[in-house]
Amino acid sequence: MAKIVFVIGSLGKGGAERVISILANNLNQRGYHVSIILVYENRIDYPINEKINIVCLNNYISSNYIVRIPSRVRYLRKIIKKMNCNLVISFLTEINIYSIVSLLFTHIPLIISERNDPYHDPHQKLLRFLRKVSYKYADGIVYQTEDAKRFFKRLYIKNRIIPNPIIENLPTHNKLNKRNNKIVTFCRLTEQKNLKMLINAYDKLPKQLKLEYQLEIYGEGPQKTLLKKYVQEKKLQTRVIFKPFSNNIHEEIINASLFVSTSDYEGISNSMLEALAIGLPVICTDCPIGGAKLAITNNYNGILVNIRDEETLTKKIKLLLENEDIADNISSHYKETREKFSESTIVDNWELFLKEII
Fold it and tell me: Which CATH architecture best describes the domain 3-165+342-357?
């Protein structure tokens, strides 16, 4: 079977990292020889099959900032060539650029993948420029949505639209279990997630609903301290609770009354997909680049609201909390989400594309 190398910054908590772990494990189980190169950090937060070879590039890189970037390119090229692989797959813009430059003139095919909204990410002008001039040297690219593909309309390489998979063996809400009085979200605590919108919408709920329902925010990230301070300023610290992300997150939220995602932009939110799949009523911002509307048919299996529209978000939260029948009907379509985004379906699509590129 073919030898495949994945390239990613690390395998720490994150959507792209989770998808690579799923792809690597599944392709390895299907007989492929799989390796993973970690460019930045030897961190592994997801289970990886023992047969998969993992190499951390930082073990070879000088700590000197001036030589770090050329060293990464040189050693990435050296390690990949030594692995004698048939295909390299890289995720995320900066890693894609490293991979493209490292593989120039090697004749090793490369598939790159965009995992966020290319209109907003990356923010740095230099990275946006390098993306523009380098991506044409890849052999294929995987997008998550049609909107993302549209951004690269002048990129004439082979491409596929393949959304994120939902992990196997997710629990599902048991209808016999009464939902608890919690509104939940789980994500990386960054500006992109616009959690202030969720906090503000919760604050605008009628007093009785705020007394009855608690907002729980699971996750870590650079905005955690700022958000905690914001909650204190609003005197909501007894009603808005911050909790660390855990490997048992689905069991912790499975009986929640509502899941809410308020991102300003997103590829396809893994937390949204998983909340839909375990049978939670879901409200999500209809943010670029179309990942939410790919998974949610408005008022059928979830509710979409415009980005930054706090008033409508408050109304929709109130609607679902006060109308259990509506919430139950919306959450009852969870099986359709599981089938559409199942691991086997998504990995099948990836396997067809990589066979086309090799």
Answer: 3-Layer(aba) Sandwich (3.40)
For the packed helices 324-331 and 310-322, what is the interaxial angle rounded to 10 degrees? 100
Angle (deg, nearest 10), helices 224-233 and 195-203: 20
What is the C-alpha to C-alpha distance for residues 340 and 197, in angstroms, rounded to an integer?
Answer: 29
Indicate whether this model's pTM tops 0.70: yes
Span 248-254, average pLDDT: 94
- Strand residues in 16-152 grouped as ranges (E): 33-38, 53-56, 87-91, 110-113, 140-143
Q: What is the pLDDT of residues 9-21, one digit of tens each?
A: 999 988 899 999 9
In terms of CATH architecture, what is 182-340? Answer: 3-Layer(aba) Sandwich (3.40)
CA-based diameter of the chain, in Å? 66
C-alpha separations of 266 from 111, 123, 304, 339 in Å: 21, 14, 14, 22
DSSP 333: T
- Cα separation, 100 vs 111, whole angstroms: 9
Q: What is the mean pLDDT of the chain?
A: 95
Per residue in 153-190, pLDDT (tens digit) is 999 999 999 999 998 889 999 887 899 999 999 999 99
pLDDT score of 295: 96
Domain limits, the chain: 3-165+342-357, 182-340
